[in-house]
Design goal:
This protein is of the alpha/beta class. Helix content is about 30%, strand content about 25%.
């Protein structure tokens, strides 16, 4: 199995390009299920999760060609089932539920089950689909949903779930009448999806706020659209500059959607500015510790909590990290402690007492963002860090070791 070996202590310098957003690309690619004709999507990242969603769409009958620019045709869907094998490798497969019922009148999607960061139920997705008139049955570990035509209505989501909002927004596009979706997630990825759906002929307003109005239409057509840059990848590279005391330029994205992370990084003493063609992120010798609390957008993203915690391990003082989105997203703590970090956890709070230096150690990745945090820790540590189970990182960071090497890091995959 692959490992990533990092020899820490190098200040990062140079320029790095941010790829398309994984969490925007996944629902955008799925939205093609609602259309006829060839869709063209640009800025698709080269990631294992993208390969998984392509396999799922192909298993439903979609034709797919291309890479960074991907073309999808869903004219001849022949299957309405997302199998356990696919869903268990990627929970975002649940995104096909709404579009399949809306387009085909039925869907059978394996229940995702728990994962490393929490139980992650999908009850809000199924309840909302039921409100649109779908008959839902849970059988043999599968969600079965049927409806001859969904009917628009007012739906209050019990919590602002990201993929839940996307799932129901897609389904409601082909429903009869108007859907008012309340307490929706406001993440930029939802706005990207809404723009793509509108390009397909959908009538959506309010995406990016907590109420989305969708006026159903009879059919949607193919579109040409571009996926937004990955704000989590951009945040990860900014932290990489901070933790190594480096000076890097991040291109392919701007500061839009990054307010929460940029504010916190500036509070640590980092200098983050807009420069010609990108963002400049400069680290400070002495890192000020800051507290962070994860929240739905525009709050601090849970997907950067682990990376920020790695940064805080070398802060000058105490940092309280509070995770409010997932109940088990501290799996990186024990690995960071193997590298000399001083962290104590009580419930959903971790208190990080900064140490002067981390020491390299063999560590194990437990999920995607935890892997990124351990790589960041390895970049700052004295000596060699050996990260195993690197398949997690390949789900969400395109060629991370190549990008970091190009910034001067001593990192390789073996
Ligand atoms: N929840 C429920 N019931 C539901 C849906 C969600 O209780 O029906 C709970 C979850 O268990 C969690 C909270 O609500 O405690 C928020 O979960 P949400 O549904 O918003 O998360 P998600 O849609 O499954 C997306 C991203 C995650 C990201 C979260 C939060 C995608 C494909 N995934 O997941 O990304 O952490 O939103 O921002 O968009 C990652 O990229 O590493 C990742 C995990």
């Amino acid at each position: 199995m692959d490992k990533i070996i990092i020899c820490g202590g190098k200040k990062l310098e140079g320029e790095v390009f941010i790829s398309g957003s994984k969490n925007a690309a996944l629902p955008v690619l799925v939205s093609s299920l609602l259309t006829t004709g060839w869709n063209t999507f640009h800025n698709i990242p080269d990631l294992v999760d993208i390969k998984t969603i392509k396999r799922l769409l192909e298993s439903l009958g979609a034709e797919i060609e291309g890479g960074e620019t991907l073309r999808i045709n869903a004219d001849k869907l022949r299957n309405c089932e997302a199998s356990y094998d696919l869903v268990k490798t990627m929970r975002a497969s649940i995104l096909v539920l709404g579009p399949l019922v809306a387009r085909m009148g039925m869907a059978r999607v394996s229940l995702p089950g728990g994962c490393a960061i929490g139980a992650r139920p999908v009850n809000v997705h199924t309840k909302a689909l039921e409100a649109l008139g779908a008959r839902i049955k849970l059988e043999d570990g599968y969600i079965e949903a049927k409806a001859s035509r969904l009917k628009g209505t007012t739906i209050y989501l019990d919590l602002p779930t990201v993929t839940g909002t996307e799932n129901i927004m897609m389904a409601a596009c082909l429903a009869k009448g108007t859907t008012l979706l309340k307490n929706t997630a406001k993440e930029p990825e939802i706005m990207n999806l809404a723009d793509v759906l509108c390009g397909m002929g959908a009538k959506i307003s309010g995406a990016g706020t907590d109420t989305i109005r969708i006026d159903g239409v009879d059919s949607l057509h193919a579109v040409e659209a571009t996926v937004i840059p990955d704000r989590i990848e951009a945040g990860t590279f900014m932290i990489a500059a901070g933790i190594t005391g480096g000076d890097i330029k991040i291109t392919g994205c701007d500061l839009c959607y990054l307010d929460a992370i940029v504010t916190k990084l500036r509070n640590t003493g980092m200098d983050i500015s807009i420069v010609d063609g990108g963002i400049r992120a400069v680290g400070e010798e002495k890192v000020k510790s800051v507290d962070i609390k994860t929240l739905p957008y525009p709050g601090f993203p849970t997907d950067l909590q682990a990376q920020m915690m790695a940064f805080m391990t070398v802060g000058n003082g105490l940092s309280v990290v509070t995770e409010t989105i997932f109940e088990n997203r501290f799996m990186h703590v024990s690995e960071l402690m193997r590298m000399g970090a001083d962290i104590s956890v009580a419930g959903n709070r971790a208190v990080v007492k900064g140490v002067p230096r981390l020491r390299g150690a063999p560590v194990m990745a437990t999920d995607l963002r935890a892997s990124a945090s351990l790589i960041l820790a390895g970049l700052a540590a004295e000596g060699v860090t050996e990260l195993s189970r690197v398949y997690h990182i390949d789900r969400g960071y395109q060629k991370i070791e190549e990008k970091l090497s190009s910034l001067g890091a001593d990192i390789k995959r073996v």
